[in-house]
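Board work, copied verbatim: Coatomer subunit delta
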Amino acid sequence: MTRIRIEGLLAAFPKLVGTGKQHTYVETENVRYVYQPIESLYLLLVTNKQSNILEDLETLRLLSKLVTEYSYSLDEEGIGKTAFELIFAFDEVICLGHKENVTVTQVKQYCEMESHEEKLHKLVLQSKINETKDVMKRKASEIDKSKIDKNRSDKGGFMSMGSGRIETSFSEMSISSSGSGFGSGSGFGGITTDLDAFSTKPKGRQPSAATAPPKGFGMQLGKSQKTNQFLESLKAEGELIVEDLQPKVGQSRVAAAPPTDPITLTAEEKLNVTLKRDGGISNFDVQGTLSLQILNQEDGLIQVQVTFMLSLQSNIPFS
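↓ predict structure ↓
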C-alpha cells in the first residue's frame, strides 16, 4: 500500500463512523474498519473483508491494552509523546499483516530487549573505565609528588666546598695542624694548641706543644698529584679553596717533652670528611678534646674562657 492510499483510508474513516452506534467495525467495498473508542480517540485496525473478524477483535483488544500500558494519558498529547514506544509495541503484535501469539508481558520484554550478556559486557566495560581512571589519578598524583620533591631539592640545593667556604682553621684559637694533609684514619691529623692560642690574632706554635705527626696512607696535600688535580679542577670551576701552607716541621722534630709550664691547655680536634665525586660533601664529622693541665695547686681555681665559631658544630668532650 502506498502512502496516499493509507492517508485516503484514514481520511474516509470519520465520515463512516456515526454517532450513537454500538458497532465496532465498518465495512466498505474493499476494506473493513475495526475500531474501539478510547475516551476521545479511536483505536483503528484496517483489514480486508476476507479476514477473521474475531481474530481482528482480539488483536484490537491487545493493542488497546498496550496503549494504556505505555501512555500516561489517553489524549492526543500523551499519545504523541509515546508514539515511538507504541509503534515498537504494535510491531511486536502484528508482523507482515498477521497477529503474533504474544501477551502484553512478552511485548514489554521484547521492547526492553534486556540481555544478560549485554549487561555483563556493560559491567566489564564500566569496570575497565573505572580502573583506567584510578590509574590516571594515581599517575597524576605521582607526577605531582615528584614535581614537589624536585622543587624542594632545587630550593635546598646541595652543600659544596665553594658554597659556604668551610672554615677549618679556627683563627681565633690559632690552632695549627701538626699533620700534613688529610691523614688516613683521623681526618686532617692531630691539631694542638697552647694557652697563648686564644688571642685575637693567630700566633706561632711553641716547640714544647708539638706532637709527632700521625702517619697516614690516604691522600695528602702537597704529596699526591691526584689531590692537586682535584683541587685545580675545583678552582677552575670557580670554587674557593683554602689551603694550609704551613711548613712541615713535625717530621724533623723530635718527640715533644712533657709540659713544664704551670698551666697547659691543649685542644685536639679530629675532622672526618667524606667528599663526593662532584665536589660536594656527603659527611662532615668534627670531634675534639679540650684538656687543661695544672701543675701548681694554687692555680686550681682559674677560669678559662673558650669561644667557638658558630658556623662549625663540634662535639667536644672535656677531660
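Confidence is low (pLDDT under 50) at residues 158-213, 310-319.
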